[in-house]
Amino acid sequence: MCPLLIATLYFILQYTAPANSSETDKPLYKPGDTVKFRVLVLNHLTRPIDSLKVINVQLKDSNSDLIRQWHYARLQKGVFQSQIDLANFVPLGNWTLKVSALNGIEETKTFNVAEYVLPLHEIHITASKQVQMNDEILKLIIDAKYTFGKPIIGYVTLAFNELNYPDMYEINGRAVISIPLSDIVDTDVGDDVYHLNVQVKIEEDESEQIYEASETIPIHKRSYKITLRKSSEYLLEEESIWCWLTITNPDGMPLTNRNVMTVKVTEMLGSRSNKHYSFQKEPDDEGVVSLKIDSSNTTDRLELEVTYEGETTKFEILHGSDNNNTRNDFIKASLLVQKPMLKHPVEVLVQSSFRMNLVIYYVISQGEILASGRISVNFKRTATFSYLATFPMVPEASLVVFTINDAMLWKDIVRFKVHELDNFVDIEISSNSAEPRAQIFLEVKSNPGSTIGLLAVDRSLLQLGTGNDITQQIVLEKLVQVEGLMLEFRLNRLFFFQRLGFTVLTNAKSHFMASPLGSSPHLLTQRFGDDEELHLGQDMQADHGTRILRKNFPETWLWTEMIEVDDKGHVDITDIIPDTMTSWSISAFAINTNHGLGVVKNPVALTVLKPFFVTVNLPYSIVKTEQAVVEVFVHNYLNQAQHVTVRVQNAQKDFIHCKHLIINMFLLIADLEVSKTVFAPSNSVKTVTFALKPKRSGNLTVTILADCSLATDAIQRNLRVTPGGLQYFENSARFIEVQNSSMSFDPIKLVIPRTATYGSVSITFSVEGFLLGAALTNLDHIIRLPSGCGEQNMLNLVPSVIALEYMDNTDTLTYGIKAKAIDYLQKGYQNQLKYKLRDGSFSVFGQSDGRGSVFLTALVAKVFTFAKRHITIDNYVIEKAFNWLRERQLSDGRFVESGRIYYKELQSGVQDGTTLTAYTLIAFLEHKSLTQKYLSVVNKGTEYIAKTYRFDGNPYSLALIAYVLQLAGHPRKHYFFDKLVELSKINEDRTMRWWGSGSTSIETTAYVLLTYMSRGSYIDAKSIMRWMVSQRYDKGGYSNTQNTFVGLQALGKYSRVMSLSNQNYDVFVNYDSERQRLHMNSTTSLVGHKFNIPSDVRQVKVDVEGTGAGVFQIAHKYNNIAHDSVPRFKIEKTLFKIRSDGVANMTIQAIYRPKKDFEETNMVMIEVMFPNGYVVTNSQLKQLEKNNQIRRSETADGDTRLILYLDPMRPNNPVYVDVEAFRKSTVLNQAPGWIKVYDYYDPTREAIEYFDPISN
C-alpha cells in the first residue's frame, strides 16, 4: 500500500501505498511571517507506518525554486512538525510544500503568500429566499458585525452590477431591504439564470469608518429542481417500490431552508385513475424524501405529482411490459440507509423483474473483499439483507449483487460512501466566550493512545482563505481510490469490474445493466458527501473585569508540539487567550496506532470580547514641536448606557496636555493625568480626543485608562517623537594593534554644526576584538539606504555569508551571531528569488525589467555558491545562472550588459566592456570547481582583458582587472599589479594606503586588498586594511551596496588570515575631564564594549595598552535642517493640497543638473516624507505602478515615507510623479514634509525640498 501523505499544511497519497497529508497554521501568509506546518504520513487505514521512520520535505516558492529542504525528517507517530521564517520581500503567490516517502511516492500542499490586511469585520449578503425571475420583490438580508460578534451600526448604500441605487438604509448589525426586482433586473432575459452583483457600502456611525462587501446572487427561472431515484426499473406485480425524491437548488446543491413536500400518487389503468393518495414529508438534511409505495395488480403505471412551495413536478413509473408485451428484465440493488454509518448495519433492497432463488453479494474496497453473503430468496422478486460498515469501506466501496435466471448471470453494482473515521477527537472549552487575557481550559478527548495536534485560527483570517488545516472532508478526499471512478463506472461496467480488482468466473451468460444512478449521476455524492459546516458560538455579556494592557495580537494560536492523551483518552490544556477581540476557530486531529486518524467534525468557536474597551488612533510619529491629537474610541457593548471617564496618564511627565481655547490658542497643562467624560449608550462607539505636546524626543508611552460603573479598560501605545530636521551620521574608526606595548591615537574631533536640533546629538564609543564586529552585530541594517531592488537585497546575503565563512575558518563567533547570520541568509535567499527571470538570470527589478542583468546575475551566482555551504540553495538556480552568463559571453571573450544599466561605473565601464568582463569573471574564478567547469569562459575572458585593456587613469577598472588576472594566474598579473601600486595614495605617517577618490574609492581599494591577499602579501596589506577600517560607517558597512559587498569581502578575507587569538589589552577613552577604561580579552572581544559619551563632548583621545588587535569607533549623529548648497537635482512641486475627505496630493518634477555635458546618473531615488499624520495608501502605490518612469515604489516608517526607484536620469529629461497621502490622524502645529532626490551610488548627487500641507 502507498502512504497517505497528509500535510498541516496536512497531506494524503493514493491508496495503494501510504497516504500523506499536511497542515499549516494559517491559510495564507504575509512576507515576514513564520510558516508552521505538520506533515502526516499514514497508511491506507490512516494509521502510522511502523516501517517508515523518515521522509524528505521540500519547500518551493511561487517560481518553483527550492527554498528549504529537510533531509531525513523524522516522523513521530506518523507526524513531522517544523517551521520556517519567510523573508520580507519574497515572491508572492502559491508556495509548495512537497513531501516524499517510500520509493518516490510524493504529495504536495500549496499555501498562498500575499500582502493582506486582516479584516476586523464580517459582512454577509444573502437573499431571503431563492430568487426567481417572476418575483416582484428582492429581499436582501445584510449582516454586518465585528469579528468579535458585535453589530456595526450605521448607514447602508447599495449598487447593483456597478450601478448605484439611490436610497440609503439604516443598519444595526442587520438590515432587511426590499427592492422591486424590476428596478434592477431585466427579467425578460432568456437565460435560465441571471447573476446579479450586489455591492454594499456601510458608513459606521461616530467613527465614519467605511466597510465594503459584494456578493453575486443568482436569479433563476425556477427556484429548485427535483430528481427521482427508484428501487426498481418499473412496477412489479405484488411488490412494493421504493422512491427517493431529492430536492436541490437549481445549481444542484442542497437547500438551506427546507419546507414540507407534498407527493400525490395516482394509480393509473389506461387513461382511468384507479386510486390516489398523498404523502407530506419534510426533506432530510440531504434534501431527500423516501417513499414506499404499494400498488395494486390492476395498475399499469404510477403518476407522481410532487408539489413544493407552489411549484409542481411530475414523474411517471411504468409497469414492466412495453407496448409489445416484451418484458424488460433487470436486477437492481438499493441502499435503504441514506447515510451509511461506520460500525452500523447497512440495509440493502434487491429487486428484479423475475423471481430469484439466490442472491450473492460482495462488498469490495481497495481491491479487497470486505463482506460477502448468500441470501436464499425462495422465488421472490424482492430480497433484503444487511452488512456491517467497517473502516476499510471508508471513504468509498462497491456493493456487487449477483443472481442467475434461465442460465443468465445478472448483476448490479452500487457505489456507496462511508464518510467517517475510525478515530475521533472532541474539544470542550470552559466557555464559548471570554475576555482577552482570560484563562481558558480545553478538554480534548480521543481514543486512549492518541496524539493530539491543536490549532486555533482568527476568524478574520478565514475570511481571506481556508484549507490550511486537516478536515474530515480533506482526509476522505485523499482516501478516494481511483480518479474518475464514477465516470468509468457509468461508461463501462466491465472495465469497472477490472478496476475493482474483481474477477467473475461463471458458466452462465453475462448481462450488463445500465447505470443504476438513473437520471441523477451526482445523487450519491449529494447525499453522502456534504461539506462540514462551521458553527460559531453565541455572543456573550462579560462581567466587570480587571484592567489589562492588550499587547498580544497573533493570527493563530494553540499551535504546540503534539500532545499525548492519558489512559482515559483525555488531555487538559490551559492557556491564556490572546488580546485580539475576534472569534477563534479551534480545530484538532488525533493519531492513533490502532484507530488511525481522527478529525474534529466541527471546529469549536471561541468569541473573545470585552463588553467595554477602548481603541486609540495615534500618528506614527511627530516632531517635538508638534502636538499629537489622540483619538480614543470608547466601545460600549454593555446592556446599559454608561458615563465613561477617559484618562491620559502622564506619570513620566513626558507630555504637556493642550486644552483648546479658541482658534490657534491652547492652554498648556503639565498635570500627571488629564481626563474627559463622555456618555456612551449601549452598543455604541463614542470618540474622545486629547492634544499632547511632547517634552522630549524618543519613544514615549501613551497610557489610556477608561472607567465606567461596570467595567474598566486600559491600553498603551508608543508615540515616536523626533527632534525635527534630517538625521545625519558620522563615524571615526581606527584599527588597534599592540604587542605587549602601548599605542596612542591622535585626538578625534567631532564636528557637529551649531544649527543641529537641540536634543538630537548622540555620541557612542565602541570597541570590538575583530574587524567585522560591527558588521556582524548589525546584519539586519548594515547601511542606512533603501534595499528594495535585486542588487540592494544582496545586503541580506553578503554580510551573512562573510560572517559564516569567517566562523568556519576561525571558530570564534558566538552561536547567537551564527544563528542570526543563517536566518538572514535564508531570508535573503528567499527575497532574491523574486528577482529571478524565467531564463535563469537576475534583474534589478525582476520580471518588469524584461531581460536579465549580467552584473547582477554574476553577483547572485557568486554569492549563492558561497551560501550553499551553509543553507539550502537550489543547485539548479545556481547552474542556470552560470549557464546564462556563459551564453552572454561574446566570441572575443567580452561580456556586455544585456540588462538595464543602473551602476554606470561598472556596467557600462570603459574600454569595450573590460570592467564588466572582469567583474563577471570573478564569479567563476572565486570558486575553483567552477573555474574548471567553465574553463573556456575564463580563458577567453582573461585573454580578452589582458590584450584589450589600456590604462586610462581610472584605478577602479585597473583594480578589478589586476584581481581577476591574479585569481586566474595569468602571465600578465605582475604587470597590472605593478601599475596598480604606482597609483596608490599614502597618508603622512604612511600607516594607510588607498586608491582612487570619490564614490568608487572604497570599492577600488577593496579589490586591491583582495589582490594583495591572493598574492600572499599580508604584511603590505595591513596599511590598506587600516584605511578600509577608517572609512566604514558605524554599522560596519559603507556608503552603498557595492562598496559594502566588496569592502566586507576584503576585510573578511584579511580577518581569516590575520586574526589574533591572544587578546589582552585596555582601551582608555579620554574626553573633557573624564577617563573610561575598557578591558578586552578573548571573551569580551567577541561581544565588544559600548557606552554613550555626553552629547556636548567635541574631542576624544584614545590610548591602548597590552596585547591584541581590534577596532574602536566613535559614532555620532544629529538632526539638522537640510541645506544643499549645490543641489544636483532641480525639484519643483505643486502645493500639497488637502481635500475634504482627508486626501492630499501633489505633483513632483525632478530634473538632473549635470556637471559635464551628456553626464547621466546611476539609479535615482526619490523619497517623500509626508507631514506627520499622513500615510501612503495601497491605492496610491497601485496608481504609481502605472507611471512608466517609476521602477518600484514602497513605503517605510509606518507608511509615512514614500520611496521611489527610478532609472538613471539624463539632463533635461524631467521625471513627473503624482503623489497622494491620506490624513489618518491629526497633528497640530504641523512641521513641513520633505522631498529628497539622490543618486543611489553617488551620494554627492542629491537635492532636498520642503513642503507644507495646504487646505483647499
Automatic annotation (TrEMBL):
Classification via Gene3D superfamilies: 1.50.10.20, 2.20.130.20, 2.60.120.1540, 2.60.40.1930, 2.60.40.1940, 6.20.50.160, Alpha-macroglobulin, receptor-binding domain, Immunoglobulins
Keyword annotations from UniProtKB, A to Z: Disulfide bond, Glycoprotein, Immunity, Signal, Thioester bond
SMART domains found in the cross-reference section: A2M, A2M_N_2, A2M_recep, Thiol-ester_cl
GO cellular component: extracellular space
Stretches assigned to the Alpha-2-macroglobulin domain: 556-648
Pfam families for the chain: A2M (PF00207), A2M_BRD (PF07703), A2M_recep (PF07677), MG2 (PF01835), MG3 (PF17791), TED_complement (PF07678), TEP1_CUB2 (PF21412)
Transmembrane segments: none
GO biological process terms on file: immune system process
Position of the signal peptide: 1-21
Alpha-macroglobulin receptor-binding domain ranges (all copies): 1161-1251
Alpha-2-macroglobulin bait region domain boundaries: 331-464
Domain of life: Eukaryota
InterPro entries: A-macroglobulin_rcpt-bd, A-macroglobulin_rcpt-bd_sf, A2M/Complement_sys, A2M_N_BRD, Alpha-macroglob_thiol-ester_cl, Alpha-macroglobulin_TED, Ig-like_fold, Macroglobln_a2
GO molecular function, one term: endopeptidase inhibitor activity
Subunit structure: Heterodimer of a TEP1-N chain and an TEP1-C chain non-covalently linked. Forms a complex composed of TEP1-N and TEP1-C heterodimer, LRIM1 and APL1C; the interaction stabilizes TEP1-N and TEP1-C heterodimer, prevents its binding to tissues while circulating in the hemolymph and protects the thioester bond from hydrolysis. Mature TEP1 and to a lesser extent full-length TEP1 interact with SPCLIP1; the interaction is induced by microbial infection.
Physiological role: Binds covalently through a thioester bond to the pathogen surface resulting in pathogen clearance.
Name the UniProt record assigns to this protein: TEP1-F
